[in-house]
Amino acid sequence: xxxxxxxxxxxxxxxxxxxxxxxxxxxxxxxxxxxxxxxxxxxxxxxxxxxxxxxxxxxxxxxxxxxxxxxxxxxxxxxxxxxxxxxxxxxxxxxxxxxxxxxxxxxxxxxxxxxxxxxxxxxxxxxxxxxxxxxxxxxxxxxxxxxxxxxxxxxxxxxxxxxxxxxxxxxxxxx
Length: 175
Known about the structure:
The chain is of the alpha/beta class. The chain is built from 6 helices and 6 strands; from the N terminus they run βααβαβαβαββα.
């Protein structure tokens, strides 16, 4: 009998992940390579998409680090004539990407979402109903929207609980 290989997808709200781990009294930095390995081993993630607000050449080192860790980098589109600070809001891009994959009937089993933003709540509810949702990983308890209190604990976890596995300069290296 052949055992079915899981083919799960991860969607990371990059700004939410970053701000959720470097703010507060227990600041820490995610080691993206360890985190990508963790997603593969724990949640059987084959492809992991990392969404960022916009392209800025001064951050090329960060973009390289994200890609070298095994994430597929996705940038939010912005009008080049916009004046002022560009907001990195990627919520709609992530939602659209997931819904497009479902609409096109792309082959994947379940979604892992990395964010605490309440804007994803309706998507999470839909994916649970469709049996396409595995887990939402909140960067920390403060970044977990109160909207998620209604879903059962089996569908969420806190990254701060595994920081010893996925944090920089921490014990628990997965390699």
